[in-house]
Amino acid sequence: MKRPSVPPFVFLCAALVTAMLAGCATVKPYEREYLGDSIMSFDEDAKEASRNVSWIETREGSTGGTGGAGGGCACK
Amino acid sequence: MKVCKEIGIVTIALTAFAARTLAGESAVDQQGATYTFHYFADSDDIRVYSHYYDYGINLKNNADLYFVWNNETVVIPPVDAAPGSDEAADAITSASRPVAGDLSAFEPYEKARDVVTASIDYGFTDAGYYVSIEEDYLAQQVSGNLNRDFLSESLNLSAGSSYGWDRIDPLADDDTPGGDDSRTNTYLNLVATQVVTPGTLIRIGAEVNEVRGLQHSPYRNVNAGGGTEPEVHPDVRSRRDFFLKLNRYFTNESSVHLSYKYYTDDWGIESHTLGARLNQYLNKNVIVRYRYRYYEQDEAWFYRDEYEASEGIGGYRSGDYRMTSFTAHLFGTHVDWALGSSIYGFRTIRQPRLIVRYERYFNSNNFSANIFESGFAVNF
User: Widest CA span of chain B, in angstroms?
Assistant: First the structure.
């Protein structure tokens, strides 16, 4: 049985968070007008994504399982 | 299960009504509602008709309440052969629907599903409750999330968790004896979102998930040892993934979203998901979105097309193609049309929007599906 390699996974996450924290200059609030546009929203994607998960998780082995979209015997 | 369904829906309806009443008319800043119709049809002739009703309230004290009700009907086609007959062997092996009685296999199987989600978002916390009700399946979940801004609101860190508990009461099935069972689901995530430049956002996150309990279809049989045996999957699964998303704005009023997700679990499945999306304003009222998603996964350690021994591999048997290796592609387009500032004659109903979406999904297992969605959203 293949076991996931936990240390590299955790290391990768930690390295990326550290890079985000350390590597970016602060963008001033008045420079953020584009970021508030609906086409830049992560959340707009999330709404659509949650509907997609409910059918994609019945077709793919690694999708879903994060709670909320599960349920159902018949269509799986 | 029927009683649970009624209790669940009534509880959520009362919660929504109580929250609305307690909030008081004067405390309401804005309300919004969306109706979305979602239609799914695949190459196995399975059809899913879903109606989503969203309702959100923004209160003046900065609390947001949000409710979603999804009413869904799943139609699975007839097996077209008597249970246990030679003609039905392949169909029954791949079917994940119950078959009971001589006539049942020749008729479509139809089931209803109701999902209700209620959540409240206040300050840097949010909490939610979810219930999914079917004739043979009841799923419930509570969730919570904390998030804070740092570095002059350039960085947001978020941590979330949920716990779900499901009850499974399989319906009568002539060729698969299955008793009542249960499943629990524990989930944790950590997400960081960073403003990188005035037009660039990145988000990275990691998710950990452990599922315990029944994780196979109680209706599916598998070719094993020269006959058919009920499907059996391990009853513990530890899953984890890491994702990275980047959103970039361009001055021609468009944006590009790129994403990558790596997933691994202790059933031996590893997967990679790549996503790209282009969003473009055609004019100030119409946004068109184009989407592509690539997915690949490898096989679970206990999966075989056919098992030589009836006990399978290590006591496990699977007929679920989600356990095989395959690749998948999804292409989609989405139009979001703002219909003006208000509906004629109804000045309190503001910012109506029409949404239409079409997606085509196909994979290397000769499976394909069409997804159509249309929705109407308003604020008031």
Answer: 71
The reported pLDDT for the residue numbered B242 is: 93
Distance (Å) of CA B300 to CA A13, B68, B175:
25, 34, 25
pLDDT at A73: 53
Search chain A and give the residue with CA nearest B185.
A67
pLDDT of residue B19: 60
Distance between A46 CA and the closest CA of chain B, angstroms: 12
Give chain A positions within 8 Å (CB) of B264. 4, 9
Residues of B in contact with A70 (CB under 8 A): 132, 139, 164, 166, 185
CB contact under 8 A, B190 and A13: yes
pLDDT in tens, B8-55: 555 566 566 556 555 555 576 778 888 889 898 888 788 889 899 989
Q: What are phi and psi of A55, to 5 degrees?
A: -100, -35
- Local confidence band at B90 (pLDDT 50, 70, 90 cut-offs): very low
Alpha helical stretches, state H, chain A: 6-23, 42-56
Query: Alpha-carbon distance B231 to B319, whole Å?
Result: 7
Mean pLDDT of chain B: 84
Grouping H, G, I as helix, E, B as strand and the rest as coil, residue A26 is: coil
**Which of the 8 DSSP states describes residue B317?**
B
| pLDDT value, residue B180 | 82
Residues A68, B247: C-beta atoms closer than 8 Å:
no
Q: What is residue B15's three-state secondary structure?
A: helix
Token pair for B23 = 């909030």
Contact call for A51 and B139, based on CB within 8 A: no
Percentage above 90 pLDDT, chain B? 49
- Beta carbons of B154 and A3 less than 8 Å apart: no
Task: For A25-59, give one letter per residue: b (16+ CB within 10 A) or e.
Answer: eebeeeebebbeeebbbeebbeebebbbbbbbbbb
Q: CB–CB of B195 and A35 under 8 A?
A: yes
User: What are B190's two structure tokens?
Assistant: 């950590």
Does B221 or A71 have the greater pLDDT score? B221
Which DSSP state fits A5?
-
The answer to whether the CB atoms of A61 and B322 lie below 8 A apart is yes
Looking at the predicted structure, is the pLDDT value of residue A23 above 80? Answer: no
Q: Smallest Cβ distance to A40: which of B141, B151, B255?
A: B255
Residue B345's alpha-carbon distances to B31, B33, B76, B297, in angstroms, are 19, 18, 44, 53
Is residue B105 a contact partner of residue B47, using CB atoms and an 8 Å limit? no
